Each structure stands twice: as structure tokens, then as C-alpha cells.
Amino acid sequence: MAIQGSRAEEPGGYTFDDLAVVMGTYNEEEAISTVLDDIATVTDGRAEVVCVDGSSDRTPEIARDHGATVIEQEPQGYGVAVREAVLTPDRPVVVTTDCDDTYPMESLPDFLNEINDGADVVSGDRLYYGAEQMPAMNKLGNELFALLASVLMGKRVHDTTTGMRAYRREILQKTVWTENTGLSAELLMRPLMRGYDVRERPIEYDERKGETKLDPFSGGAAIAKSIVRVALEERFR
């Protein structure tokens, strides 16, 4: 979603100079330019951007032209790419997003403000406003994933598979991340079950550009298995 006008107001404490925005990218040449332009507009070009890329199209070239650090990687799945992305930056605040233009980069100041207020993890809740642009099957699946995770953790969460979150870097660095397709759920569940200050923040969700890469059935089964596995591991660690 192209952002018009000047960048958003910057919060105190950590600033955009302390922020890295990271993503796994795979054949997203239709959307990547808009996403990177939006990040630059909101942060006045001060945020570091890292893309871990396994594309066969022009995605990495476009990302480099926009000033992003591109780490090329053979396609090994969502989690492998995002794990590399979150562990790469040296900046103290790391925000994950997807490169399909579904997430609101104008929310970056709000996420940073929550970190400055003491949050360890800020998780974007796509379902709060209805997620009307999300396919019905995906929306139902995401609601069921959140319910499953909530029951297993004994703590209510509303969107376990969102791709937009902010983290204090030290939490990412000190945790061993093991999941692939289910990494997004793991990135929420392990910090929450270890007692970190994890906050959900409502965000708008837009229609994606380009085609989805995740099969709803095999991908959904893999995510559900990850949720169960991570919850059990954390219960008995």
C-alpha cells in the first residue's frame, strides 16, 4: 500500500536509527518496490532493511536498488529465510514483515513506541479489524491456529501467524528457533511462554500483490504441528 505524504511522527527512546526491518523474499517483484518505498517513507530512510532472498525473478535486484541488504539463499522454506533475516541485524529493535504489501508500514512508529514503553515483542493482530482482504479459508485457519495456541499455552492470543512483529534483538538472539513453515507461530509462542512482555496490537491487512506461495492444506497442517510441538517443548523445558 503506497504511503502518501511525509513520514509518521517518531517516538522517543529508540529511534528509527535503532530499527531493522527484515523479511524473507521469494519472487515478489510485483510488491517489493512498494514495501521498501513505504519503509523508507515512514522511517525517513533511516531503518536498516534486510531481505533474505531465494527468488528467480527480479526481487533481489529491486531490493538492492532500494538500498536493502540482500542475503541470497537457496529456497528452503519460509522459516529458514526469516530465521536468517531476524538474526542478521545488529540494531536493537527488529521488525519482521512480509514483502507482499499486505502489512501497514505506517504502523512502524506505533510498534517502536510499544517497545519504548517496555514491550519485548509487539505482534500485529490482523484479525482485529476483520481482515476482509484475507481469503475466507485463510482467515478461518488463522482463527483456529490462535485458538489452538491459546488453549495449549493457557494464554489468549488472537493472531499467531502474523508476519508483522517487533522484537528486542536480544530475545531473538538468545532463543533457539527450530520451525520452518510454523516459524511465525514459534516467534510469538516461545517469548510469551517464557514470561516476556508480549503485546498484540491491531493492524490493518491489505490484499496481497502476487500469488501466495503457501498451500493452505499442507501449510496449515505444518503450522498446527508446529504450534503443538512448540507448546509442549516450552511446557516441559
UniProtKB/TrEMBL annotation:
<dbReference type="Pfam" id="PF00535">
    <property type="entry name" value="Glycos_transf_2"/>
</dbReference>
<protein>
    <submittedName>
        <fullName>Glycosyltransferase</fullName>
    </submittedName>
</protein>
<dbReference type="InterPro" id="IPR001173">
    <property type="entry name" value="Glyco_trans_2-like"/>
</dbReference>
<feature type="domain" description="Glycosyltransferase 2-like">
    <location>
        <begin position="21"/>
        <end position="174"/>
    </location>
</feature>
<dbReference type="InterPro" id="IPR054887">
    <property type="entry name" value="DPhHxTase"/>
</dbReference>
<dbReference type="InterPro" id="IPR050256">
    <property type="entry name" value="Glycosyltransferase_2"/>
</dbReference>
<dbReference type="InterPro" id="IPR029044">
    <property type="entry name" value="Nucleotide-diphossugar_trans"/>
</dbReference>
<dbReference type="GO" id="GO:0016740">
    <property type="term" value="F:transferase activity"/>
</dbReference>
